[in-house]
C-alpha cells in the first residue's frame, strides 16, 4: 500500500472510474472497484482492491445522520474500545468515506447462530461495551418518532399494502407499546443492532458497522435486534436464557425478567416499524429485496404479542394478516 497526499478530487457522478480514482488518492495501487450494497436509507457501498489491499468506500449524502455523523461515531466508539472499521480518508464535499474492509462475514452467515453460545455471548458483550461508550450530541428524540414509526404497521403495511382494515381497539396497542418502551431503561442505542451489522473478523473479534443512526433510546430495541431475528422463528426460551446472561453482564442493574420484558417490547416496536418500512420501500421505490422476509416477521410478531398479552394483535396477525400477505406475495 502506498498512501498518498490527500488531494481534493471533485466527483460529478458515482461511476466506477471516478470512485476508483478517489480511492487511488489514498492508495495508488488499487486497480478494481465493485458495488457491494445499497442500504434501505440509500447509502451505497463499494469495495476497492489491489493484489495486496482492500478498502470499502461509502457514499452517504443523507442530511440526517449522514457521513459526518458516521465519522464522529466511529471515532467515539473506537476510543471506548468498540471494534469498528478504521476511517482512512473522507471527502465531505462528495460525501465519500474510505474505510477499513472488515470482510463479508457478518453474523447473518453464521448458521445456527443461537446455538453457538459463546458467539451470542460475545455479541452481548459488544452491546454492553457500546452501552458504556461516550458520545457527543447523541440524539435524544427517539420518543418523538416512536408512535409514527409504529403506525407504519397500520397505515402502510395493513392499509396501503394489504388493503386490510385494522382490528377494533387497535389504538390501545399503541398506548400499551408507548408505556412498554418509555418506562424501560434508556441508553446508547444503535437502532439496528442485528446480525447483518456485526462482522466476525479472522482473529475472532466482532466489528460493529452502520452505527450512524446511534441515538439515546430504549435498551430493549438493540436487545431485540440481536435476540429476536427477522429471518428465523422466535424462540422465547432462548431469549430468556440470553437475557439472563446479559443481566449478569450489563452495566445496568436490572433483573433478567426486566431485560426480557424490555426485549419483548423492543421487539414489538422494531417489528411493527420494519413491516411498515419494508412495504413502504416497495410501494414508493419498488425495492423488493426484503419483502419475502415479511411472513417470518409477522409470525415472530405474533409470538411476541402473545407473550406480552396483546392477544388481539396476535390473533389479527395469524388469522387475517398472514392469509392476505401470502396471497399478495404469490402475485409479486
Automatic annotation (TrEMBL):
GO MF term list: transferase activity
Residue ranges of every copy of the Aminoglycoside phosphotransferase domain listed in the record: 33-227
Keywords: Transferase
Domain of life: Bacteria
One Pfam family of this chain: APH
Protein name: Phosphotransferase enzyme family protein
Amino acid at each position: 500500500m502506498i498512501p498518498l497526499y490527500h488531494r481534493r478530487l471533485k466527483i460529478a457522478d458515482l461511476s466506477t472510474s471516478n470512485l476508483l480514482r478517489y480511492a487511488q488518492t489514498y492508495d495508488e495501487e488499487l486497480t478494481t472497484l465493485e458495488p457491494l450494497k445499497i442500504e434501505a436509507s440509500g447509502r451505497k457501498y463499494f469495495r476497492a482492491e489491489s493484489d495486496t489491499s482492500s478498502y470499502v468506500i461509502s457514499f452517504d449524502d443523507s442530511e440526517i445522520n449522514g457521513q459526518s455523523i458516521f465519522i464522529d461515531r466511529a471515532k467515539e466508539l473506537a476510543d471506548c474500545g468498540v471494534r469498528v472499521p478504521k476511517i482512512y480518508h473522507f471527502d465531505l464535499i462528495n460525501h465519500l468515506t474510505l474505510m477499513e474492509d472488515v470482510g463479508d462475514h457478518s453474523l447473518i452467515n453464521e448458521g445456527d447462530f443461537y446455538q453457538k453460545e459463546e458467539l451470542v455471548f460475545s455479541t452481548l458483550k459488544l452491546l454492553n461495551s457500546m452501552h458504556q461508550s461516550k458520545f457527543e450530541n447523541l440524539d435524544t428524540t427517539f420518543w418523538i418518532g416512536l408512535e409514527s414509526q409504529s403506525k407504519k404497521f397500520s397505515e402502510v403495511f395493513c392499509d396501503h399494502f394489504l388493503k386490510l382494515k385494522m382490528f377494533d381497539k387497535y389504538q390501545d396497542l399503541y398506548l400499551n407499546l408507548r408505556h412498554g418502551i418509555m418506562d424501560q431503561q434508556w441508553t446508547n442505542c444503535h437502532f439496528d443492532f442485528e446480525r447483518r451489522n456485526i462482522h466476525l473478523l479472522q482473529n475472532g473479534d466482532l466489528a460493529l458497522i452502520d452505527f450512524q443512526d446511534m441515538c439515546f433510546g430504549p435498551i430493549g430495541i438493540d436487545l431485540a435486534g440481536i435476540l429476536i431475528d427477522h429471518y428465523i422463528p422466535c424462540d422465547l426460551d432462548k431469549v430468556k436464557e440470553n437475557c439472563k446472561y446479559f443481566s449478569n453482564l450489563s452495566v445496568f442493574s436490572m433483573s433478567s425478567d426486566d431485560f426480557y420484558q424490555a426485549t419483548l417490547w423492543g421487539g414489538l416496536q422494531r417489528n411493527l416499524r420494519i413491516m411498515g418500512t419494508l412495504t413502504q420501500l416497495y410501494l414508493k421505490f419498488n425495492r423488493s429485496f426484503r419483502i419475502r422476509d415479511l411472513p417470518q416477521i409477522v409470525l415472530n410478531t405474533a409470538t411476541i404479542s402473545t407473550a406480552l398479552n396483546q392477544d388481539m394483535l396476535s390473533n389479527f396477525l395469524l388469522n387475517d394478516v398472514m392469509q392476505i400477505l401470502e396471497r399478495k406475495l404469490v402475485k409479486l
